[in-house]
Write a structure and sequence with these properties.
The complex is a heterodimer.
Chain A lengths: L3 E4 L2 E4 L5 E7 L5 E8 L3 E10 L2 E4 L6 E3 L9 E3 L8 E8 L8 E2 L3 E5 L1
Parallel strand pairs in A: 2-11
Antiparallel strand pairs in A: 1-3, 3-8, 4-5, 4-9, 5-6, 7-8, 9-10, 9-11
Chain B lengths: L2 E3 L4 E5 L4 E3 L2 E3 L5 E7 L6 E5 L10 E2 L10 E3 L8 E8 L5 E3 L3 E6 L1
Parallel strand pairs in B: 2-11
Antiparallel strand pairs in B: 1-4, 3-8, 5-6, 5-9, 7-8, 9-10, 9-11
The chains are: A mainly beta, B mainly beta.
């Protein structure tokens, strides 16, 4: 789906650096989500947002910060990257309609050295 | 709390054989259940949702509230079905909880 895009697709950063992953959707979906995908853990929810200026923690929020000043954008920031944050990060969005699925972006593969 | 369990990390079948990917859930209310598929190095895509009761690519899944299960089935597997499959549950707060996934390999 071209309606949700993530950038960058690949990122290598050093331990201790701050890095921001971008997510943009064109559907005006109310809900947006950040997941990380790791072998053996599946997809784990980091943060989600029900609307602009409303965010909430998921299962694994430590070390991450999000903001949602506009409905269409939901950036994820790693304040001080650690090697354990090496992962593939997926952004997703959904409508607030029962049964509506999540639409996923292409993912960002982040490596922390 | 909501939880999704996919007991099989890996599942290998031969082409033409039936396949069943298991999913069990834990949730106190009325859940919405989904199956997502991720082909190699691609984004996750919705495969099925229980409210639609549809068949996609030959796959079906029935919600069994008594057994709290939502198993994914296909009578005749194809090589192109090889992928990672995730079962997911959405509760009342609209957040989706995923299982750990099952990697399906269909051998020729």
């Amino acid at each position: 789906d071209a309606g949700i895009t993530q950038s960058p697709r690949y990122k290598i950063t050093e331990t201790g650096r701050q890095v921001t992953l971008m997510c943009h959707q064109t559907w005006s979906h109310s809900y947006m989500f950040w997941y990380r995908q790791d072998l053996g853990h599946g997809l784990r929810l980091i943060y989600y947002s029900a609307a602009a200026d409303i965010t909430d923690k998921g299962e694994v929020p430590d070390g991450y910060v999000v903001s949602r000043s506009k409905t269409e954008n939901f950036p994820l920031t790693l304040e001080s990257a650690t090697r354990s944050q090496t992962s593939v990060y997926f952004c997703a969005s959904s409508e607030t309609v029962s049964g509506s699925p999540l639409h996923f972006g292409n993912g960002t593969r982040l490596t922390v050295t | 709390a909501q939880r999704v369990t996919q007991p099989e990390k890996l599942l290998s079948v031969f082409k033409g054989a039936p396949v069943e990917l298991k999913c069990n859930y834990s949730y106190s209310g009325s859940p919405e259940l989904f199956w997502y598929v991720q082909y190699s190095r691609q984004r996750l895509q919705l495969l099925l949702r229980h409210i639609s009761r549809e068949s996609i690519k030959g796959f079906t899944a029935d919600l069994n509230k008594g057994e709290t299960s939502f198993h994914l089935k296909k009578p005749f597997a194809q090589e192109e079905d090889s992928a990672m499959y995730y079962c997911a549950l959405r509760g009342s707060n609209y957040k989706l909880t995923f299982g750990k996934g099952t990697l399906l390999t269909v051998n020729p």
